[in-house]
Amino acid sequence: MNALIPAAVFGAVVALGMGAAGYVAGSSQAPDAVAPAASSAPDRAAVEAIVRDYLVTNPEIMIEVQQALEARQAETQRVAQTEIIRSAESQIFNASYDGIIGNPDGDVTIVEFFDYNCGYCKRALSDMEALVEQDTNLRFVLKEFPILGPDSQRAHVVSMAFRNLLPENYAAFHRDLLASEARVTEDEAILAAVSHGADEAALRQEMQNPDIIAAFQETYALADQLSITGTPSYVVGGEVVFGAMGQEVLAQKIEEVRAENPS
Questions:
Q1: CA 134 from chain center: how many Å?
Q2: Which CATH number is 90-260's, of 3.10.180.10, 3.40.50.720, 3.40.30.10, 3.30.450.20?
Q3: Which helix (H) or strand (E) holds 182?
Q4: Where are the domains of the chain?
Q5: How many CB atoms sit inside 10 A of residue 158's CB?
Q6: Bond into 104 cis (ω within 30)
Q7: Of the four listed, 17, 49, 222, 247, which is most buried by Cβ atoms within 10 Å?
Q8: How far apart are CA 207 and CA 185, in angstroms?
Q9: Interior CA angle at 102 toward 101 and 103, to 5°?
Q10: Neighbouring residues of 152: CB distance < 8 A, sequence distance ≥ 6
């Protein structure tokens, strides 16, 4: 995109310059005078040369234009995301298939889109744990969003099946699996599930539940609407926060939500 901006700006400035030249040429005539066609047309090459020289002499203008464009695009995206969060509030914050850590009745909810094989998600685990420990009124919703290949997809099927069978043990299972330094596979997820109380035969049977695939499809659709393409990504209040921003940033977002919605 950056390579296209100078050309776009150059074209826009040239158009403005030629428009201005046309206006001056026309207004310099008497109302009833008709100027020859050649004299009323601006010299395109001359205008382009003037604009080019100006931009070369003042290249900082290109940075200002790029920043303004990025700010406008970010604001457009923010407005669209806010509307989607409002219209899909139930699916985002209260889907029956999502895991919950912290206070189920908390006054602020953070929704995290995560993948068990995402290195940034693994590093962000401590942020979630610290926030939940320090804020007893925080509700953390975990949206399983396997996007890092077949291993992730199969491991998340195990995770969803485990949550369906033993929701009371899901938080501990999630922490152990996400904290794993090895690549998380279906086999490793099953071992973790069994270690947290699951019957392997019942677990494998639940892994065939078509509702699991339906839940993933709904999560993928939500992510697409919210322009979420990576993990971790968070929804806090009416805002989408991309990337592992750290405990302090998330804590600030929580306070902003509380300030907007005082109890």
A1: 26
A2: 3.40.30.10
A3: none
A4: 1-62, 90-260
A5: 28
A6: no
A7: 222
A8: 14
A9: 125
A10: 115, 116, 117, 146, 184
User: Hey, what long-range contacts does 201-209 have (CB within 8 A, 24 or more apart)?
Assistant: 202/165, 203/158, 203/161, 203/162, 203/165, 206/161, 206/162, 206/164, 206/165, 207/157, 207/158, 207/161, 209/161, 209/164
- The closest of 78, 127, 73 to 240, measured between CA atoms, is 78
Q: Are 215 and 222 in contact (CB under 8 A)?
A: no
Give the CB-side neighbour count of residue 189, counting CA atoms within 13 A: 26
Cβ–Cβ < 8 Å for 239, 81 = yes
* Residue 235, SS3 per DSSP: strand
DSSP 160: H
Do 238 and 84 contact (CB within 8 A), yes or no? no
Q: Count CB atoms within 10 A of the CB of residue 214.
A: 11
